[in-house]
Amino acid sequence: DVAAASPVLAEYAHALALARTALLRCVAAGLGLDPDYLARLHSEDNSSLRLLRYPRGTERTGNRCREHSDYGTLTLLLVDGISGLEAFHGGRWVPVPYSAGSLVVNAGSLLERWTGGTIPATLHRVAGPASSGGKGGSRSPREREDLLAAVGRDRTSLAYFCDPDRGAAAELAGGDGDGDGDGDEGASGTSVAEYIRWRSGGDDADARRSGIAFTREERARIDGNGGWGQGGGKSG
Asked: What sign does the CA torsion over 180, 190, 201, 114 have?
């Protein structure tokens, strides 16, 4: 559909599709799998390119984008250099460095499930001058003057979300998801389509449920209580 909007965007989306396949092959090889294993699970080309604009704010602006993880496998992100993008790493928020013409690569929660937590989903946000308080060392490490200057400008990013084939399993053989059916990780044995629907707020016993920013393991990680990514394994 992107070709109808812009030939330039269509060319860019095609380039990102090639980059996605190359990255998936690298990830698979790094995990000791057939290099094409993960790429074959993206044969339907369900990726989407979103053009995002963050309007300017004030000194009272908190997170311009709240902390969250993406639900696919990989996200390829092109940013404009406006300060604020941060990732949660090592128990604290750290600024994501900007390099003109480079892509930020985030791991999604499906890749975390597929690898049993070996590759944790990238928890990230766009901080503002008032991003502070709460658990998990949530105060931004950036200088306030830097965030004040950033929030005085519109911010633009292009996000390419890589989603697997809809019928693929949300938990691959050999993964270490618990599948305990407690309503915080979705039911075990679900498909990618069902998992994405669950992450988006649907198909749950509570009809009032809305989409969530974190899975249970991610919430535990940001609250400092263990979870995936702590020493390469999963807490009890």
From this structure: positive
Q: Count CB-CB contacts under 10 A for residue 182.
A: 10
Residue 130 CB partners (closer than 8 Å, separation 6+): 59, 60, 61, 62
119 close to 108: Cβ distance less than 8 angstroms = no
3-state secondary structure of 74: strand
Q: Is 51 left (phi over 0), alpha (psi -120 to 50) or beta?
A: beta
Q: How far apart are CA 93 and CA 122, in angstroms?
A: 11
Task: Write the pLDDT tens digit of every residue in 110-168.
Answer: 999 999 999 999 999 999 998 864 444 567 888 888 999 999 999 999 999 999 999 99
pLDDT tens for each residue of 221-235: 767 654 433 323 322
Which of 141, 172, 177 has its CA nearest to residue 31? Answer: 172
